[in-house]
Amino acid sequence: MNVFRLSHIIHRTQVQHVRQSVRIAAGAAVCFPSYSAANTTAYIKGTREYSTKTHAEHITPEEPYINWGMSCSYFTRKLDAAFKFYPFQYEFKSKTLRQTNRLEKESGTHRIPVVQTSQGKLMADTTVIMDHLDTILVKEGMPDRQMYGNNMNGVVIHVLEEYFDEWFPRHALLWRWTDEETTVYNQKKMGKELLPAFWEMPFRGFVGKKISRWGVRAMRATGLEFKQQQLDGREESLRVFAMMDKQLRQTPFLLGHHPCAVDCVVLGGMWGHFANDPAPKKALKEAGLDRLLEWGDENYQHPPPEEWRPLTKPQDAIFACDLLTEMTEGPFREWTLLNMAALSRSEKSFTMRCYSSETSFLARSESEKARRRIRDRVRGLRGFSAEEHKKTVDWLDSWGLLELYGGNE
C-alpha cells in the first residue's frame, strides 16, 4: 500500500471518529432526552429492556458503578448528584473516542450517560437507573436512602422531577447556545474532553462549529428559535431559579430535610450548566440568588445522611407548590398533552401558544414514555394501598394533573 493511500485511510478514520465525538458532544450540549443524555428506554447490552428482577447487586460490590458521560452534560451530572447521596461505590469517566464504539454497541444507544454496573452491564435512562438503585436499597434494608420512595411521596417526586427532565433542559440549551462567550467556552471544553490530545488542535474548529450548528437545530426543535421565545424562556428559568433559592434559605434540600430525585436533577443542571457556564452564572448572580449558587456549587458540602429527616409531605413544601403552579399555569401541562396527542396521530410536530408567541415543537416519544411511566406508577399504588392511591389521585386532580398522570388512556 503506498504512502498516499495509507495517509488517506488514516485521515478518513480520524474524521469519522471526530464526527462521532460531535454527536456525543451535541448530546451533552443539548442535554435533552430526545437529543442527548437521558431518558430513553434502558437497555442492557442492547438486547432487551432492563428489569430490576434479574440482577443481584449489593451496596458494596467488588467493583464500583461507572457513570460514562460528559462533565458538561445535564443528565450525566444528574447521576453524579444521585451517587453523591446514594451509599454505592461510584466513579465518573468521560466518554471519549476510545470508549465510544464499545459503549454504544453494548448499551444499544449513542446517548449519555450510560451506567456500568458492578457486573459490567450497561444501563441507560437516568430515572430507570435511579429506580433500580432504589429497589436495591429496599432489598438491602436501607429504604431511608431512596431518592423516590414507594408511596404517594414517590409519585410527587416523580411528577416534580418530570418538569426538570422533560421541559427545563430547553433552558439549558437557551443559555448555552445564545451567548457567544458561553458557546465558545463549551466548544473548547467539549473538544478537550472528547478528543485525545494529539487530535484536539487540528479538529477543534471543526468540532466547535458542528456542535454549535447542532445546538441551534435542537433549539428550533424545542421552540426556542426566535428572539421572543428566548426572552420568555430566560424569564421562566429565572423565575424557577428564584423558587429554588427561596426554599433553600429554609431547608437544606428542595423538598425538605432529605435529598430526592428533584435535588439530583437540579444539581445536575447546576453542575453541568447553570453554575459553570458564564451566561447563566452571571444572570444568577445579578438576580441575587446567592443561596442557590452556593448550594449548586460542586464543592458544596451537603448535610450527611445522619442529619437527614424523612420527607413526610413533600407536596406541601413551598418549592413544590410554586413549581406545581408553574407547571400547570405555564406551558408545561399543555405541551405534555399536545405532545401526547401528536404522537397518537403519528405526527412529527405540533404548535401551541407558549407565553407570548405561537411556537412549534418537535413531538418527542421519550417524553411520552416518561409520562406513561408516572401514570403506571400511580396505577401501581392500587395494589400498594387503596387509601394511598386515592390520596394521590386527589392530589393530582387538585393541581389539574390527573389527565396527564392518572388517566385511563
Structural account:
- The relative contact order is 0.12.
- With 409 residues, the chain is of the alpha+beta class.
- The radius of gyration is 21 Å and the shape is globular.
- α2 links the parallel β3 and β4 (90-94).
- The termini are far apart.
- The protein has a domain at 164-405.
- It has a four-stranded mixed β-sheet, sandwiched between helices. A two-stranded antiparallel sheet has the order 1-2.
- It contains 17 helices and eight strands.
- α2 (74-85) crosses α10 (261-274), α5 packs antiparallel against α15 and α7 crosses α8 (197-221).
Nearest-integer average pLDDT = 85
Q: Segments where pLDDT lies below 50 for 5+ residues?
A: 1-11, 29-56
- How big a fraction of the residues is strand? 5-15%
Cross-sheet strand order for the largest sheet: 4-3-5-6
Compute the number of strand runs. Answer: 8
Question: What general form does the structure show?
Answer: globular
Distance between the termini: 63 Å
- Computed over alpha carbons, the radius of gyration is 21 Å
Q: Which structural class is indicated by helix and strand composition? A: alpha+beta
What is the chain-wise order of helices and strands? Answer: HEEEHEHEEHHHHHHHHHHHEEHHH
Helix content: 55-70%
The largest β sheet comes out as:
4 strands, mixed
Helical stretch tally:
17
